[in-house]
Structures are given as structure tokens and as C-alpha cells.
Amino acid sequence: QGNTDHRGQGDPATRGSHGGIRVVTDGAQLGQREGQQRHDRAQQHEPVQEGPGAQGAEGERRQDARCGEDGGLAIEPGPLLIEQPQPLDPVEVAARLQVAARIAGLTSRLRREAEALRTANAALEGANKRLAEMALTDSLTGLPNRRHLLERLREAWALPQSQKQDFAALSVDLDHFKNYNDTYGHPAGDRLLRAVAAGWISRLRETDLLARYGGEEFCIILPDATLEQACAVAERLRSDVETQAGAAVRTTQGLKITSSFGVAAFSTGMLDPAQLIDLADQALYTAKKSGRNC
After folding, report:
1. E-strand stretches of 64-184
2. CA–CA separation, 21 vs 48, rounded Å?
3. What does each C-alpha distance from 146 to 37, 193, 229 come to in angstroms?
């Protein structure tokens, strides 16, 4: 009975209030406790093992005792007791919250700046696109300009011979345009150029290219067209100018606007697109010498 009471009671420093984990941090207490346990077993006539297993167990107990002497922890099985967390330092909490708020602010600012950058890039791309279009467009008529025309011809010329189509070029000039400007003024001349261009566009295919070559001169590229087909197109456009252009820009009685055409077709012997344009210009010059309006 005495032994049982002795084991049931323990040093408060070494036993939890509910029989939980007991932690011994003092080497002397650990040694006293080990000796008391051996004494209790002897009083109850419990056999003491001296074999290798006993030596191993004893060695473990000695190791545990040495850990205690060195300030270590000797832990015995039992219910787990959770240590209460230490109270938070208000100063540290405030500092951490301040850092978190600053990080959130910087993140939000970075997102706004990234969105502004995307918007600026989109605007810049749009401006560059408009500039590129302006560089290839005649500002008066809205037609492709000479540069655009030559780029399209170079692209067609760069195709392999087996992929090249038949195509033709028309050089066009409004007859006596300078006299018209001198008589009715440059604003009237601008209206005439725009009216002629709009009328021709409505008469051409989507694959055809009508460009203002300079001044009152235009150039038309007709893909997949033979010389005969190109001549037929030229005659139709010439007739439209003669019958409709004057009335489209002025109400002056008897005002007559005419145009002259030169036609040339691509041939395999041509080495450069400029040769095609030159041939069409030569044909235009011949038409002017022959009395114009042809």
C-alpha cells in the first residue's frame, strides 16, 4: 500500500495535473526518481533483468539521466497537453499590419500601372497603324498612293513564275486638268479628282487596285486580266468620265471632262515592275498625241 501511494504521488514539477506529459529538466531529480522506481520494484519482488535487454534498457535510462543533467528533456508517454500561446505584442502586430498594407498598396499600384501600360501600348499600336495607312494613302482621294501601288507590284513580281497571274496596268490622265483648275479654281479641281476616283471604284472589282499616281494621273492594276480585257475596262472607264464627270462636279452648261488611257500587259520577259508602268505610260503618251479622250 505504501509503495502504491508513493507511486501515485509525484513531484508537481514532474507530473501534470491530469497525468499528462511529465517533463524533467533537472538531472538530480531524474536520478532520484530512477532510484525510487528501482527500490519500489525490489520491494514488490519484481525480477530485475540483467540480460542484454536489461543492460540496453538501463543504458537508455542512463542516457535519459545524462540528458537531464545536460539540461535536456525526459518525456514520458501520456495525454498531450497543449501549451497556451504567448500573447501577441501589439507593437509587432501593428508593424506587421503596416507592412502588409504597404505591400497591398504597392501591388494595387503595380496593377494600375500595368493596365495603363497596356492601354498606352494599344493606343500606340493604333497610331502606328494609322500612320502606316497614311503613308500608303492619298489624302485627297483616299486612294492608295504611288508608294502603295509599287509595293503591291513588287509583291506580285516576287512570286514564283508558276504562281504569277496575267495582269495588266492602266495609266490614266484627266485631259486639260490644268486649264480646268485655272478656270474654276483648285477646290473645284479637288472635287473633280474625288468624283472621278469614286466613279471608277464603283466600276472595278475588289481585286483591282486603283491608285493616284500623282497630280491628275491615276494608275490601275488589273490582276488576272489579258491585254484585250484591260482595253475593254479602259474604254468603259473613259466613257464614264466623258458622260458623268462634268455633271458630277459642276452645273455649268456644256462642261465636258475627258480622260486618256494607256494600257500594258505583263509579259514573262519583264525584269522589273517599273517596266510595266513605263509601257502603260508610253501608251498614254501616244493617246494624248492622238487627240486625247481615247
Report:
1. 74-75, 167-174
2. 26
3. 110, 16, 24
Give Cβ neighbours of residue 282 (< 8 Å, ≥ 6 apart): 262, 264
Strand partners, 212: 218
- Over residues 54-69, the pLDDT tens digits come to 455 455 555 554 444 4
What distances in angstroms separate CA 50 from CA 39, 55, 59, 63, 218, one per listed residue?
16, 6, 12, 18, 119
pLDDT tens-digit map of 117-149: 999 999 999 988 888 888 889 999 999 999 999
Residue 216 catalytic?
yes
Spatial contact of 291 and 175, defined as CB atoms under 8 Å apart: no
Give 3-state DSSP helix, strand, coil % of the chain, rounded to 5. Answer: 55, 10, 30
Catalytic residue among 60, 92, 125, 216: 216
**DSSP conformation class of 223:** E
